[in-house]
Amino acid sequence: MKAVILAGGYGTRLSEETGVVPKPLLEIGGRPILWHIMKIYGAHGITDFVICCGYKGTLIKEYFLNYFNRNSDFTIDLSSNSVEITHTAIEPWRVTLADTGLETMTGGRIKRIAPYVGNETFCLTYGDGVSDIDIGKLVEFHRQQGTMATVTAVRQPGRFGTLDLSEDVTRVNAIREKSVLDGQTINGGFFVLEPSIFDLIEGDSTVWEEAPLQGLVSSGQLSVFRHGGFWQNMDTLRDKNLLQSMWDSNNPPWRIWN
Q: Which residues form the signal peptide (predicted)?
């Protein structure tokens, strides 16, 4: 199974830092938040990734092009111009880096990577949120529901789209913009999707969280996986500092890998 990560946005609420690098490359504990997300999936055996690049996407491509050397020890014999790898600590990842456009909306980015996913169930998440979610249980739940899509519902106050959940707690009734009077159950990303969702996306201007998700809700095809554990996104500098402080504590709750 592939995991698709949306990593092409401008990250405007972190403009003091994203003017230099794209938000998915902003570091927590000396590693990009993108790396942390991939480690979460990798801990559950998902190691085939499709990264939707956009804003400063060349920097994300360069990061992975140089990843092997950056994470290896090697000896260079200058006289023979040869390199001997003496130690390496490389994850068994396969990473597809797709340029999905500078101004493309989230739905359009998903539509553009359809050829890399093929006719298979796949995971999707945002390039700025970490969690201790059990991906294996999420995928199993999705298969049991038999719907086109599953979204992970998390508890978090703030500025995000809120979810109205049906009584049987496995379907979403509505998605709307959050107000301060709403409850705290929100879209936490970490979707599992069937390839049929590509038919719901018209093109680059489509916002995934609007017409496609609303269509899934209307047809009863959006299931909800409730995650009561840790979830935190990195939307502002305050969020970034919070995640860094958790990492510095030597026990960050999203570090589920060895």
A: none
